Amino acid sequence: DIQMTQSPSSLSASVGDRVTITCQASQDISNYLNWYQQKPGKAPKLLIYDASNLETGVPSRFSGSGSGTDFTFTISSLQPEDIATYYCQQYDNLLRGTFGPGTKVDIK
Amino acid sequence: QVQLVQSGAEVKKPGASVKVSCKASGYTFTSYGISWVRQAPGQGLEWMGWISAYNGNTNYAQKLQGRVTMTTDTSTSTAYMELRSLRSDDTAVYYCARDTTMKYWGQGTLVTVSS
Fold first, then answer.
1. ω into residue A59 within 30 of 0, thus cis?
2. Chain A residue closest to B33 (CA)?
């Protein structure tokens, strides 16, 4: 199975800061990489699909980039409502999926 | 609107089985697969597997092979996930979600395994 690593595991930033999370796959996954936001007690919410496509209705301060094995997720200006845990998720050509371990984002 | 509605919380003893349902509405059920994801208390998301609602093809996470079975009933637009030989570390919230890019999620089903 493809393994996903994510860093950092947690971060604390100020409102308005630029926040960057990286995700690395153990092998080439092309652009089959999604990003989710999860708040406590809630189901995850899809933010970015296929590495760089913003899901409908998601604020434009969220963005994603990358292909192959290395991916980046960015919040351009952190807002209080962005406090959550963020997960990357890959799916391979056999439709098997793996989540990264998650990054917990907090306000400083 | 697309909705996935899951069955209610379950409490099971070690060694037992659990079957969680996920009823879909608001779209053509056979046009998308269903993924199952679980989350143990305080832990991250774990992909369990995927089933095609079109033809029933499945892919399971390697660590669950032999203990998990995913099925669908197209007549009721419902997906099922059965997990057998339950252990305490299977205690988790179990989610269904539409397809491999999971835009729509069920509300989650808490399965507690305890003697």
1. no
2. A95
Inter-chain contact B45–A46, Cβ cutoff 8 Å?
Answer: no
- Cβ atoms < 10 Å from Cβ of A82: 20
How far is it, in rounded angstroms, from Cα A102 to Cα B42? 12
| Model confidence pLDDT, tens digit, residues A39-74 | 999 999 999 999 999 999 999 999 999 999 999 999
- Return the C-alpha torsion angle B23, B28, B32, B34, nearest 10: 0
Assigned token pair, B39: 């989350």
**In 3D, which of A41, A37, A42, A21 has the Cα closest to residue A82?**
A37
Considering only CB atoms, A99 lies closest to which of B33, B47, B101, namely: B47
State how far residue A22 is from chain B, nearest Cα, in angstroms. 16
Facing residue for B44 by CB, picked from A46, A91, A99 = A99
A89 near A97, Cβ under 8 Å? yes
